Amino acid sequence: MSSPDAVLAKFREYVLGPLRFMNLLSCFELGIVDVLKGNAGGGMTAVQIADATGIAPHSVEQMLYLLVKEDFVSFDESSASYALDGIKHLSDDDLGRVLPWMDMVKVVCLRQLYYLTESVRTGKVVGLKELYDFEGNFYEASTRYPELQASWGAMMDQVTGFIDPWFFGNLDLPDNAKVLDVAGNTGLGAVLAYRHKRVENLHVTCFDFPEKEAEALENFRAHGVQDHCSFIGGDVFDSVPKGFDVVMIKHFLDMFDKENVFRILKGVHEALDVGGQVYVLVPIYPEDVKSSCSVDFFPAYFLGCTMAQGGPQKISTYEQWMEACGFKVTKAVSQDISAMPPDVIPVHGIICGTKTSP
Ligand SMILES: C[S@@+](CC[C@H](N)C(=O)[O-])C[C@H]1O[C@@H](n2cnc3c(N)ncnc32)[C@H](O)[C@@H]1O
């Protein structure tokens, strides 16, 4: 940046970010967007919106100034009425992708990031201690606090549902394969693996903390895959279950620093027989950090909100780490950023490796 003015203008955008974020999200939460949507573009005054949402007309006007400025909503001076503008172009799928992220940023990030500096300084998720009196990482906390699991889980399921068709398109499974989904959360990855890979006699096992078992089994029943999917409870740092041909590790290695990534990869290597395969799916930093928004999100998210460690790496780094842990890397592919919807934040990579010797 060449001038102080350009730098100052950037700082202004950073100062305004959290306020804009909550103003927009609140308009959804207050029902203002739904009411305007229900009115089918006819236009509503602040008083009509207020009557329909139960908030004061003055507050409606204040909350909608920003949305009018951003062309999300239009305002007709002559009739003093509001109608959806930019937002009306978003499909239910678009909103189903964006809104879980916004809710997660509110519930998981905004409050905890107040303590980012302390979390980085101490290597602990200080926000969890301050807000919940909880010592540990976010994933442990989410098993105890349903509102954290609900908000984060909706975002995670959305990311998994979005990325998994690409992931499974790159996954080769033989008939009769026994697949282990390491850190498989409440089983969505196992369900999708079974659905996407139409091979004979496939069995997918979700491995995660024991607290996830009940919800995972319920998910398997709800999707009618209970005979093909199962659950093992445990901690990956204690041991990785044996007896599987293929191990999937999705959205997990990025949560840890190098030392712990090596512990996980070595644990998986030990659990597999020679010839066994591992498929890693991770958010990655592109070789040119400026080409995506990954670094805008992940460092603060991992250090301040969830783990107080970890964060994505470049795909070339993951390849080196897998080789260092005994795998022969057979494939490494990155998502094509230009083919992704503009709101999508993580850019993913898949790295596939084979255990070639004991
Ligand atoms: C970011 S989520 C990824 C979930 C899933 N793989 C997906 O792609 O949707 C990380 C998962 O790791 C699990 N996890 C965290 N630490 C773990 C550990 N030490 N052992 C087993 N699972 C763990 C969490 O419970 C959580 O479900």
UniProtKB/TrEMBL annotation:
Domain spans labelled O-methyltransferase dimerisation: 14-74
Matches recorded under InterPro entries: COMT-like, COMT_C, COMT_dimerisation, SAM-dependent_MTases_sf, WH-like_DNA-bd_sf, WH_DNA-bd_sf
Which Pfam families has this protein been placed in? Dimerisation, Methyltransf_2
UniProt keywords (A-Z) are: Methyltransferase, S-adenosyl-L-methionine, Transferase
Instruction: Show where the O-methyltransferase C-terminal domain sits.
Output: 114-327
Q: Which CDD domains match?
A: AdoMet_MTases
Q: Which domain of life is it from?
A: Bacteria
Protein name, as recorded: O-methyltransferase domain-containing protein
State the species of origin: Streptomyces humicola
Which taxonomic lineage does the organism of this UniProt entry have? Answer: Bacteria, Bacillati, Actinomycetota, Actinomycetes, Kitasatosporales
